[in-house]
Amino acid sequence: MTEPNQSRVVIVGAGPAGIRAAETLAAVGLRPTVIDEGARAGGQIYRRPPDGFTRPPSTLYGSQAGKAVALHTAFDGLVSAGRIVHLPRHSVVALADGTLHAVGDGGSRRIGCDRLILATGATDRLAPVLGWQAPGVYSLGAMQIALKAQGVAMGRRIVLAGSGPLLTLLATQLRKAGAEIAAVLDTAGMRGQIAAFPDLAVRPSFALHGLAMRARLGRLYHAGIALEGIEATDTGVTAVRWKDAAGRMRSTACDAVGLGWHLKAETQLADLAGCRFAYDETWAQWLPCADCMGRAGDGVYLAGDGLRLLGADGAEVAGRLAAAACLSDLGLPVPDVAADLKRLDRLERFARGIARAFPWPADQVRTLPDDTVLCRCEGITAGAVRETAVYGGAEANRVKSLGRAGMGRCQGRYCQLAAADLIAATAGLAHAGDAGRLRAQAPVRPVTIAALLEGE
Amino acid sequence: MSGTAGGRLVRLAETGRAPVRFLLDGMERTALSGDTVLTAILTNAPTLRQAEFGPEQRAGFCLMGACQDCWIWQEQGPRLRACSTPVADGMRLLTRTREDWP
Q: What residue ranges do the domains of chain B occupy?
C-alpha cells in the first residue's frame, strides 16, 4: 500500500487550472507530475513567448498581466524547487488502467498514475462558413496566439467574425498592436446581449471593460449579422460576404479572417478516463459530469475550461478545488474551500450569462448550403452529412463511421457540433444533443509511428 | 517590402531577434530565432501546403496543435506540425511533397 503522500498524482495541462492544482498539491508535500503541450507553462490564455522575446507582460496580457505573472512565477518556483515534475512539450494521447501514454520530442513514454487531474482547457468553438477552408481563415484563438507568442498579425487587412468576448478583445488587441481590422462581425444580436445583462452584472468591472472596448471599435462592430460566405483565390481569402442586421447584403475585402464562437471544452481525455457526459443547453455542447469540486470518477478530477467554460479566473479556482478533492480522497490535509466554492458559483453565473448573450449560431449551421465544407480535415460537405444522416441514421458516431465527418486528423474537434446540428435538423430532432455524442478515440492527437518506436 | 514579398503574415513586434536561415522548396529564406515553422514559412509565402482532400492550399488554422491543418513535409522525409515546432537553422521545408517520392 502506497503512503498517501507518495501517491503518483498526474496533472495534464499547465494553464491556470493545472498550475493552481499543482501548487495546492505541492503545498502539502505531494510531488505531482505536470504534463503539458506548451514549452513553457501558462496555457493558451497566459501563453508565454519563446526566449528572446522582449514585450513586457503588460503589453502581452493587458489588464490581466498581474494574474499571468503570478501564475508563471508560482509554477517556475515549484519547478526550480523540485516540488513538482514538469514534462513540457508532451501530449497525453491515451490512458488506460492507471497508465498515461505521453508523446514528446524524444518519443513516447508511459507514466503510471494513481490519481489524475485533467486540466485540458478548451479550443475555439467553430461553426462552418461557406469557404472557410480557404488559406487565411483562422480561429480567433489562433490570431491571438500569433499576436501574443509570435508578435505577428495573420494578414494585412483582417475581418473578425463569430461571437463571444474574444471577438471584441482580439479586435482591440490587434488594433492596439498596429494591425488593420476591416470589420468585426457578431452573429449575436443586440437584444439577446442586453437580455443577458443581469447575469453579466455579477462581475461589473469585467462587463464594463468589455463594453468600453466595444465602444472604441465604433463603426467597425456590427451586431446581429449573418455570414454568407468567404471568397478566396488560390493564395488566400479576398472578402467576407455577410448580411447586416437589417438584411442588406454586404461584402468586406480582406486577406485574413478570424472565426470563433466562444469556446469548446477539450474533453477527449476525460472521455477515455470514463467520465460521464451530459449535454449542456447553455454552452450548446457535451460536457463531462463532476461534483462541485471536480470529482468525475474513481481517482479522476477535472478542472478549468475542460469541465466548465468559466475562463481563466474560474480555471484557477477550479484547479485549487480539484486538488483539494484529490487531497481529501487521499486522507491528506485539505485547505478551506468555502470561499472558492462561492467564487465558482458567481463565475458560473457570469459565464452562463456570456454564453446566452453570445450564443452558438444554430440557425446559420442548420441552413448551410449543401456545398459548404463542414469537415476541414477531409473536405466532407454539409450536403454529405445530411445524406449520411438520412441513409445511415441520425446519430453522430454512425455519421462519422459511414460518412467520415469527425474521422479526420482533428478527430471532430472543429466539426462535431455543426455536424450534430445538421443531423438533428435533417432528422427533425429538437436539439443537437439528441444526435448523440461523438466518442473520443485514442490516440487523441496524431502520433507518428517513429515516435511510438522511439519510446520504451 | 522585398523581404516579405509574397508573405501572408505581418510582423508587428519583436523584430530585433537573430536571423535564422532555412530552405523552403529549395530556396533560401530567412526567419527570426523564436519563430515557429508556421511563422517562418508564412512570412515568406501565402500558404503552407496543398490540401489532400480538396483543391485548395492551406495555411494553418488553430495554431494550438488541435486542428492538425499545418503538418508539412521536410526534404529528408519526416513531417512536422508547423505551429508547434520552432524553426531552426538549416531546416529544409517543403510546401508540397517531393515529386521523386513513390
A: 18-94
Side chain identity at residue A234, one-letter code: D
Structural domains in chain A? 4-123+264-353 (3.50.50.60), 126-261 (3.50.50.60), 363-435 (1.10.10.1100)
A265, A309 Cβ separation under 8 angstroms: yes
For residue B9, give the nearest of B35, B19, A130 by alpha carbon: B35
pTM of structure: 0.96
Give the sign of the dihedral formed by CA A348, CA A354, CA A358, CA A363.
Answer: positive
CA distance A454 to B5: 40
Residues in chain A closer than 8 A to B16 (CB atoms): 54
Q: Does A36 touch chain B (CB under 8 A)?
A: no
Q: Do B47 and A236 touch (CB under 8 A)?
A: yes
Q: Which of A52, A150, A154 lies nearest to residue B8, judging by beta carbons?
A: A154
* Closest residue by Cα to residue B49 from B65, B70, B63: B70
CA angle A79, A83, A84 (to 5 degrees): 60
Domain B18-94 CATH assignment equals 3.40.50.1000 = no
Cβ neighbours of A51 (radius 10 Å): 10
Task: Determine contact: B57 vs chain A, CB below 8 A.
Answer: yes
Among candidate residues A274, A244, A333, A286, the one with its CA nearest the CA of residue A29: A333
Task: Provide the shortest C-alpha distance from residue A411 to chain B (in Å).
Answer: 8
Cβ within 8 Å, pair B12-A123 = no
Residues 6 or more apart whose CB falls under 8 angstroms from that of A266 comprise: A120, A121, A122, A123, A305, A306, A413, B66
Contact status, residue A123 vs residue A44, Cβ threshold 8 Å: no
Nearest to A152 among B9, B47, B84 (CB): B9
Nearest to A392 by CA among A419, A363, A415: A419
Per-residue pLDDT of chain A (456 residues; tens, 9 = 90+): 567 778 899 999 999 999 999 999 999 999 999 999 999 999 999 999 999 999 999 999 999 999 999 999 999 999 999 999 999 999 999 999 999 999 998 889 999 999 999 999 999 999 999 999 999 999 999 999 999 999 999 999 999 999 999 999 999 999 999 999 999 999 999 999 889 888 888 888 888 888 999 999 999 999 999 999 999 999 999 999 999 999 999 999 999 999 999 999 999 999 999 999 999 999 999 999 999 999 999 999 999 999 999 999 999 999 999 999 999 999 999 999 999 999 999 999 999 999 999 999 999 999 999 999 999 999 999 999 999 999 999 999 999 999 999 999 999 999 999 999 999 999 999 999 999 999 999 999 999 888 888 766
ipTM of the complex: 0.95
